Protein: Response regulator
Amino acid sequence: MQNNILIVEDDMAIREMMAFSLRREGFDTFKAASGHEALEQLNQVHPDLIVVDWGLPDMSGIDLIDMIRRDDVIKEVPIIMLTARAEENDKVKGLERGADDYLTKPASMLELMARIRAHLRRSKGFELNHKLEFQGIVMDAGAHEVMIDGEALNLSLTEFKLLKLFLQNPNKLLAREHILNHIWGRNTFVEDRTVDVHILRLRKALKAHRKDKWIQTVRGVGYKLAS
Structure:
């Protein structure tokens, strides 16, 4: 599967050069010339990595990173800041405010590609090696497997995503809106009832192993995984 890279850069020549270089290396690219355009893109796609310029026309790249890091759906996406600001204080500020890496212009495309690949390896590697467990339910996200007391559990992709969200947030109330945003995306028109239907399906799959009781309904609000 190809990785999606969002490029947020107001200089068209730099933006197009980066997009061309990334596509040539096998990446899918999405482009934005401003912070608000980037936010619109993020309503449509979930990138695997974002490259952000500091000096955007409508907001600073730092402010955009702040917004991304506060969003539960995309806050873990790796971000590389690519900017002409080369002062040490600027680099420290960028990293402290949420950038994972900081490159100054003019940057070598070879170095940018190397850093992109390094961050993608780390982010994917964490997911592949990370197992989630709760009350005998064990999920291996990388292998896309769920085991319950040693027996395999067959789930649809949506049910798998739902269970993963619960396992990542044990004993935490998840509002229907949060679940909708995380599973279907923030700009998708899906009714709250859709969440309820998929929760019922997930419970049915878990019931065969007597684990359905762990998914509890909080009336009028949402659901939580709790013992």
Residues 4-128 form a domain with the Rossmann fold fold (CATH 3.40.50.2300). Residues 86 and 113 are 20 Å apart (CA to CA). The longest helix spans residues 109-129.
